[in-house]
């Protein structure tokens, strides 16, 4: 293995996008093979590299695996997890404590609701980073298979 495709990349460099790629980390560790998983829309294409099944829901439960996609979906995910572990009352108390009552001023929070112009601009802004990350992860996967 080269330094470019080391586990340090998967479990270190990806930390810069922690909320968006936590599921990619779980997939790289082998936890999502054959499992449905949610992930931020911009990184979903990476999940199948590790055998995960992409699901574009905000929160996905597949057996004992619970995953969420995106930043605000991460809040939803945590509230669902709190409800499962400690009950709905506790989750609602946390939600109130956070004053989490989203009412976004625009309907551009998902690729299917954003205008084509906005989606194109975001994809263009992220294109280089996405391509580099995908190439490095593909290299890492290939090195693990040899």
Number of spatially distinct domains: 1
Could you list the spans in which at least 5 consecutive residues all have pLDDT below 50? 1-17
Task: Evaluate the radius of gyration.
Answer: 17 Å
Fold-level CATH name: Rossmann fold
Q: What does the largest sheet look like?
A: 2 strands, parallel
The DSSP helix count reads: 5
The total strand number stands at 4
Structural class: mainly alpha
**Helicity, in percent?**
40-55%
**Biggest sheet, spatial arrangement of strands:** 1-2
How much β-strand is present in the residues? 5-15%
- Mean pLDDT across the residues is 84
Please, could you describe this protein's structure?
With 146 residues, this protein is mainly alpha-helical. It has one domain (3-145): Class I glutamine amidotransferase (GATase) domain (Rossmann fold), CATH 3.40.50. It has five helices and four strands; from the N terminus they run H-H-E-E-E-E-H-H-H. It has a two-stranded parallel ribbon with strand order 1-2. Strand 3 and strand 4 (65-68) form a beta hairpin. Helix 3 (71-86) packs antiparallel against helix 4 (88-98). The longest helix is centred in the last third of the chain and has 30 residues, at 116-145. It starts with 6 loop residues before the first helix and ends with a helix. Residues 1-17 have low confidence and may be disordered.
């Amino acid at each position: 293995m080269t330094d470019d495709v080391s586990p340090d990349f998967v479990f270190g460099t990806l930390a810069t996008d922690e909320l968006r790629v936590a599921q990619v980390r779980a997939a790289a560790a082998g936890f999502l093979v054959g499992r449905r998983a949610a992930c931020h829309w911009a990184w979903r294409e990476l999940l199948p590299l590790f055998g995960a099944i992409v699901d574009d829901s905000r929160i996905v439960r597949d057996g004992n695996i619970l995953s969420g996609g995106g930043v605000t979906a991460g809040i939803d995910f945590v509230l669902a997890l709190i409800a499962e572990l400690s009950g709905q009352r506790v989750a609602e108390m946390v939600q109130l404590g956070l004053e989490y009552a989203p009412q976004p001023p625009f309907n551009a929070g998902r690729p299917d609701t954003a205008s084509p112009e906005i989606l194109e601009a975001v994809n263009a802004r992220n294109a280089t980073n996405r391509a580099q990350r995908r190439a490095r992860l593909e290299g890492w996967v290939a090195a693990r298979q040899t």
